[in-house]
Amino acid sequence: MEYKEMTYKDAVNLAMTEEMRKDENVILFGEDVGLYGGAFGVSVGMFEEFGPERVKDTPISEAVIAGCAAGAAVTGLRPIAEIMFMDFTTIAMDALVNQAAKMRYMFGGKAQVPMVLRTPGGSGTGAAAQHSQSLEAWFCHVPGLKVVVPGTPADAKGLLKAAIRDNNPVVFVEQKTLYKEKGEVPMDDEFVIPLGKGEIKREGSDVTVISYGRMLPRVLEAADDLKKEGISVEVVDPRTLVPLDKEMIIDSVKKTGKLILVNEACKTGGFLGEISAMVSESEAFDYLDAPIVRLAGLDVPVPYNPELEAAIVPSVDQIRQAIVDVVTNKR
Amino acid sequence: MATEIIMPKAGMDMQEGQILQWLVAEGDSVEEGQVILEIMTDKVSMEVEAEVSGVLLKKVYDEGDTVPVITTIGYIGEAGEEIVETTPVVAAPAPQAALEAATSAPAVETPVITTTDANGKVRATPAARALAKEKGFALENIPGTGPLGRIHKQDVQGYREADALKVSPLAKAIAEDKGIDLTGKTGTGIGGKIMRQDVLDMAAPQTAAAAQTAAEEEAPNVVPMTPMRKIIAKRMTESFFTAPTFTLHTDIDVRQIKAFVAAIKEDVIEATGFKPSLNDMIVFATSRALMACPVINTSLTPEGDAVIYHQDAHIAIAVATEAGLLTPVIRNVNQKGLSAVVADTKDLATRAKSNKLLPDELSGSTFTISNLGMFGITGFNPIINQPNSAILGVSTIKEVPALEDGQWVNKEMMDISITIDHRVIDGADGAQFLKTLKELMENPYRLML
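Above: the input entities. Below: the structure tokens describing the complete assembly.
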């Protein structure tokens, strides 16, 4: 397979472009996605290639964006709707949660809603409390929605293509601070990563660390550091939170007996708690040899002050220390 | 302060010993030099004497337990004296330098003996609980090394079974065999240790109920290997798979030598108190044949690049005992007269059967003789007793008709075989040895030469 080094952002662009070339029903719309190329430049060049009919700017109304997406999807298109900041999905909630997520079920399968709601989450850009949240847990709580959070450029491409081809509404959470991160991306236009299939990013035996999205590179850095110290860390990236690759997680915990969960979102009510509870309920319980540890964002609005903003999410040092503590039975 | 009784290290090879029998009970007075227990090493049983006079305060291990050498197995002291236990010591998990470097924790936590919390619950991880249950350990007894004494899986793994199980190995084996769950059970041994009889008592009611079905599906009787059986297995496997061997057979007409034994019988009895046997003659004749064929009386060096030619013939004789095969060694047979050989052979064989041999009497052979004639075996290929280079196999005597000077006579023929290590000995050497031995046995007067 041919690979090319590209940014996370370009991988998202490539996935959309490939799918739009393949299927004329795939369209993209959102605030400034057209001529401007998107607030983060994700859709640069697409307006030029596909024209104003298929790459559309919308009014500044997330309710309209999500409503149009649900309506277009149920009437036969495969819309990709971009919400400029994940924080703004609050405005899109009715269309997404009460309409898109419910229709296939309520019409007995006669309607389907093949839409993707793309939106960048996370802090780290100095965008303050209303433009920095990680709200994926909300969507995971709604049956009928799928939730994807890619942590690498290759995963971003493969998962977005799967999301576009899926006949259900998919919330596709991109990571603002990862947009410029580079990685090897397969150029095959049939490179599709099935939703619900996690990946073991590092094989290890002493502890399982589950992470996704922005924290994944930090976890990998800590794991690679500690490997030199003789600690073998297994890093599991579920990649999609709904559906969740429970089997991979349970098998890994059974192997290592220890579990650390890392994400950026606030700890309270977050998805890490869901994974933790799932493991405790599973056959992996008897294999647990340490308390399950969550490293998550602090339960505060994201501060504007850059020092404070950095301090509220797990750092590489904190992750490394937590791993050492758990592996040496100190926690 | 109480004096420890330790599991002695009776030989260089000895790693562990089994307690066969305590000869005194807790609370009994013992005299210095009094035999207080019997132990079993790889090959032999031994008596352990009290090193001081006093009272046997405590037996740390029970009959049937196998413990490493130099382990404290009991205490002698003043009546009523407190024992300062030197065991069990559960070592703190070895802190890897790397982990220490990576952690900012100021000091390694010392192991904390777990006590139950205010609600009487033990702090332990699910994995530790599962493992403890599987092994039949009581969590309360296991020192936890985690925060607040939490027991982790590693603590359970590091816990010594002998301390934790509170079940004697024999009782455990019986329980497994009979499918009895010992979890939560206590027995009549020290500290509630479950002993063989306890398990048999537990089994009794079930046995009656299960008798009918048991008749239909008899479970296989799985018996753990004794230390001696393990050693035999190890040595035989090593010998069989390292030495390229083959076996030569011939048969010996034993009429002359039997007549010879009959002729000297009374003299030997008078000298030794024992009746000479054909086997004694074989040992005696073999020593002479070995001197005539030095390449047979050899050992390969451990490096396998040189051959040791032994000056004297130290002949091991294979003795079947209830516990297994023993090979006591008769030393310097080549220098001994027949009476001495008879006396030594009888002495060693008798003590072998009653398990009273000393470790030194079981090692240092240069050649081995295995005799299965008493079982009517007509021929066999023995396995070399390393580091010997060869072993002699002696079979039964068969009467065969033969023509001698035109007359039909009964010859009494005995098969003897020699298995040789071809790394050291060639076929012609082995054949020459058998020929020499055959001529000596068939013409006993030559033994005088």
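Note for the figure: Chain A is about 40% helix and 20% strand.
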